[in-house]
Amino acid sequence: MKKKILFWIIITLIAFFTRFYKLDLYPPSLSIDEVSIGYNAFSILKTGRDEWGNFLPSSFRSVGDYKAPTLIYLTVPFVKILGLNDFSTRLPVAIFSAINIFLFWLLVSRFIFNKKYSGLAYLSTFIFSISPWLIIFSRSSFEAVVALSFLLANLIFAFEFRKNGRIKDFIFMFTFAYLSAITYHSTKIVVPLINVIFILLDYKCFVGYLTDWYRESKIKLFITTIIFIGISIFFIKNFIFGPGSSRAGMTLLTNDFDYAKGIIPKLIAHPLFWLTSTISLISFWYKRFLEYFSANFYLSSGLGLSTPLWPGQGVIYAIEYPFLIVGFFILISLRKYFDSSISQKFVVSILVAWFFLGFLPASISNNSQHALRSLNVLPVIAILISLGIIFAVESVKKPIFKYILSAVIIAGYILGIIRFVDFYTLHYPIELSETRSYGWKQMAIYARDHHSEYDNVYVDPRFGSSGPFTFGTPYLYFLFYSQYDPSKYINDPRRKEGTNFENYIFTIDKNWPDINLTKNNLYIASPWNFPQWLLESKREKFFVQFINKKSGIYAISN
Amino acid sequence: MNYLVAVIFSALFSLKTKSSLFTFFYLSLLPFIVFSGETPVSIFFSLLLGFILFFIFQKPKLSNFLIFSIVLITIFIIVKPRLGLDMSLLNNVNAQKGEHPDFQTSLVAKLIHNKAELVHSYISNFDKLLSPVAVFASGFWHKIDPYYPLGFLFPWDLYFIYRYFRYKKINLKDKPWKFFIIALSTLFILSGVTYIDQALLFGFAVVYFLALLAAHGYETASKKTRLVFLGLNLLFLFYQLNITSYFKI
Fold this sequence. Notes:
A: five-stranded mixed sheet; B: 0% strand; globular
């Protein structure tokens, strides 16, 4: 009991320091998605409508990406209590991430691992709690973390249902399945597949439960069926075929740069284009899928916390990699570690299915090795690593070698954690803060305090040290940090055509070198927008330098 | 010439393991032999190493391991492998070291940003040759075309390697695996640290070893299934030959 208490004290401390400590500072600057989630939650709180004036939408149009609704609605009470700021926007995901640890513990200790090997549940929960894969996404508003909570809850109730056959557990099982599916696009694919496999693996048992329910209470079964069908229709209508599907459509593999711009233009003149393009697409998907089993994803570039092609951080710690491989072979060859209360074969089959299906949504979308889209696999990864470690330590017979192995593992973890903290808190902000739209927050706060001094404030949404290639959404930062009244914004007649509000004008059409300095305007843009003489004159009102000091954003007036 | 080398090895393997004609055809038509463009000597050494590795795997005896070592030393003398790690990576490591405000004295900077980071170059080289995606889906990525995916083996060989392990029921406790592990690790290391053209020689040895496992995996399937896959393999090769010539490489 004392050990259990000590374990949970350690886990609580880990959860606090990795999820909540300096949450508003690391990572620096809210991303575009985060300000969008924050402002839309604020808008829902004040008006019941999103930034486009849609009443309680089932998917948020936002910047055209039709965001999943759950996280935005979950953020509303935090904005209500703490106000609209960086901390309140990030807090819900951090809380869900902490809940994930507990849910993971429940799942593995009750349904996955054999009670004889209780150490596995503790070890895997510890590994899960310190996972860099989960930590970095827990400190930003990423829906995938919330979807993972619902997926874990879904599986807990699925196992409970499989064990006891209670209708209550079945209802919770599919409720959490739907919640997970509507929270993030990847889980729309993973969750239904895992649940279908869960039922099909032992369909006779499921049919048996259905027969029992029918015998016990026909009305109860009838009502449950009606609710199930109703929710399914609502889900399919809104999230598979509705506007919520547009984001998924945008990120499909067919839109991948390598496929759409690399392969297709070359094949287009082929006499059997329909065949060659189809075979190429299948081969291309296969490539994308297998990329998730490459060492670089796990060891050097999976999380992308550094400049591409520079040394970076993988999705796991380096010391874990050999144990992950061993763990996988243990999973498919040794069943003694798994819970036998249902069936060891059943548990292993679910884990294998989860491991491979978990990468499926990420592999059918654009971009290779996408850590966020494959986050749902993390619980299986933590299970495999813990299996590998326990097997390795068990396999060593001599105590002295056991101690040496344990010392190597602990030292590896310490080095790995130091390295991860170094990359996350130092190199990531320096090398990649531009990708998080760093600078717009500071500029938005400056503009909030000074915009009334000018007739118009012109803002160029393009930014970055390499030139006018990156388009940001500064209007969201200006709305967010000025806490601009959503009802005024929604009802502004200019909203139909663009994002302008008050005296802010967001435009790329302006011929920036020819700005008229005789008028009382403020111009907010990147250095390459302005002629050099203007930058060197004393017309600069404010300058936000990027953390890498390569460039920044200027505010200039007459 | 490459093809002739492959045919000789296929015949040798089929005779030694008393495999069916399918194995002979399968091993003679491997994509990495058809598309690689390696010299016949290089292919010969690759197949020879892979061949011996397979027999170490089957019978991890000292004699097999000694043969493997002698062949490897001979290859070393002939090929003279050079280190192929990306040394420009060190500049990036130093740049990251310099990102520490007090990097001259920072213990963390010294601990993390040092020559050990060259392992990233090793991982990158290894992935290009021996990751599952390289072997089964896109090893020829960038070599044939910047975008076109084509693996070193047939895409479905992955399943037949699984079948090999599924049906052969290998008992990990029965055999002295150290010889096999040392031999395989040596090839893994050489594939990652040597200059890419030489790394191909060692990488293809492992690929051929996997092909031999897959060949045994095919043997566990019915005759009809093997015939279907023989046809499929031929179709696959013809299709890829058509496409790659269409891409005008």
